[in-house]
């Protein structure tokens, strides 16, 4: 991908496929998620991440936390596909850094 304003977004549930996404929004969400996640078990649930992440996002990209829920899930799945974060097979699902 040559457009620096876009990034290839992967999804652990759809290996081999990629979707174009806004690079700035991705980078901000990735930084926020990685700042929140612990290095190991037990990790955080997706609901805990979604509740905490808006405070870490730049207002110019996510005004009032707008669209943060969608981006949390999209970036979560991308980071899992890239083996940067890992899920624990518990209910509810818990995530931590790989």
Your description of this structure?
InterPro entries: DUF6958 (IPR054233). It holds the Pfam family DUF6958. By secondary structure, the chain is of the alpha+beta class. It has one domain: Arc Repressor Mutant, subunit A, CATH 1.10.10. Helices cover 36% and strands 20% of the residues. The protein is built from three helices and five strands. It has helices at residues 23-36, 46-52, 68-81; strands spanning 6-10, 18-22, 44-45, 85-88, 94-97. The chain has a three-stranded antiparallel β-sheet with strand order 3-5-4. Strands 1-2 form a two-stranded antiparallel sheet. The mean pLDDT is 95.
Which key features would you list for this structure?
Arc Repressor Mutant, subunit A, three-stranded antiparallel beta sheet, DUF6958, 20% strand, 98 residues, globular, alpha+beta
Topology:
Elements: E1 6-10, E2 18-22, H1 23-36, E3 44-45, H2 46-52, H3 68-81, E4 85-88, E5 94-97
Antiparallel strand pairs: 1-2, 3-5, 4-5
Helix pairs in contact: 1-3
Overall CATH class = Mainly Alpha
Strand order of the largest sheet: 3-5-4
How helix-rich are the residues, as a percent range? 25-40%
N→C terminal distance: 26 Å
What's the shape?
Answer: globular
CATH level 3 topology: Arc Repressor Mutant, subunit A
**Residue windows where pLDDT falls under 50 for at least 5 positions:** none
InterPro entries: DUF6958
């Amino acid at each position: 991908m040559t457009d620096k304003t876009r990034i290839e977004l992967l999804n652990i549930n759809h290996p081999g496929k990629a979707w174009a996404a806004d690079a700035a929004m991705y980078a901000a969400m990735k930084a926020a998620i990685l700042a929140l996640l612990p290095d190991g078990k037990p990790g955080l649930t997706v609901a805990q991440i979604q509740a905490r992440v808006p405070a870490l996002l730049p207002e110019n990209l996510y005004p009032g936390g707008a669209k943060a829920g969608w981006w949390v899930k999209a970036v979560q799945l991308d980071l899992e596909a890239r083996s940067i974060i890992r899920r624990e097979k518990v209910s509810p699902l818990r995530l931590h850094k790989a």
